[in-house]
Amino acid sequence: MAKKKITEIATEELDVFLSSNGYELYRTEFVKEGKDWFLRIYIDFADAGGGRYISTEDCEKVSRFLSGRLDELDPVEKNYYLEVSSPGLDRALVKEKDYERFSGKEVDISLYKAENGRKTVSGTLVGIKDGKIAILDEKGNEVSFPKEQVAKTKLKIVF
User: Fold this and answer.
1) What is the distance between the alpha carbons of residues 125 and 107, in angstroms, rounded to a whole number?
2) Quick count: other Cβ atoms within 10 Å of Cβ 124?
3) CA triplet 27, 30, 36: central angle to 5 degrees?
4) What is the DSSP letter of 140?
5) What is the rounded distance in angstroms from the CA atom of residue 35 to the CA atom of residue 82?
């Protein structure tokens, strides 16, 4: 039997715990930075927060649970750091439901290849239409980019 990836194990272990506590898993990653490995877990409220934001207490609660489960299972042979956090105010939009949830919000889109001399475009998120990420530009015109041309879409912090 093939070994499962640590991100898959973490996702499985968190599934019931998160949903029973009103959270959802936003994203997981297991990455090496320098000589150290990091298992990063990003959580959010299942109901998009209802105006609430993930607190350090929320992160600690999830971290304690997952740390205990991973200590029992011991799925990773190397040393790593477990980090649990919120996706942040300038969160990257990863899943299709993120684009639905944050429709109407200001976003910054980074492109792999410049279009009209720009690799970064800002606007109001419309959503995903026919496999393209659509925004309204500063003039109110709808502009769209094929998902495969988009390196990253992040919520814009507006003060």
Assistant:
1) 6
2) 17
3) 140
4) S
5) 15
In order, the DSSP letters of 63-117 are HHHHHHHHHHH---SS--EEEEE---TTPBP-SHHHHHHTTTSEEEEEEEEEETT
- Is the separation of the CB atoms in 118 and 52 below 8 Å? no
Q: Which residues neighbour 95 within 8 Å (Cβ) at sequence distance 6 or greater?
A: none
Q: Say if CB 92 and CB 151 are below 8 A apart.
A: no
- Asked if 145 contacts 84 with a C-beta cutoff of 8 angstroms, the reply is no
Measure the CA–CA gap between 85 and 62, rounded to whole angstroms: 9
Closest CA to 60 of 29, 38, 37, 83: 83
Half-sphere exposure of 32 (CA within 13 A, CB side): 4
Give me the pLDDT at residue 77, please: 87
Phi-psi domain of 33 (left: phi exceeds 0; alpha: psi -120 through 50; beta: other): beta
pLDDT in tens, 46-92: 876 566 789 999 999 999 999 999 999 999 888 999 999 999 888 99
CA atoms of 113 and 151, how far apart (whole Å):
9
What's the Cα-to-Cα distance from 68 to each of 10, 14, 62, rounded to whole Å?
Answer: 11, 11, 10
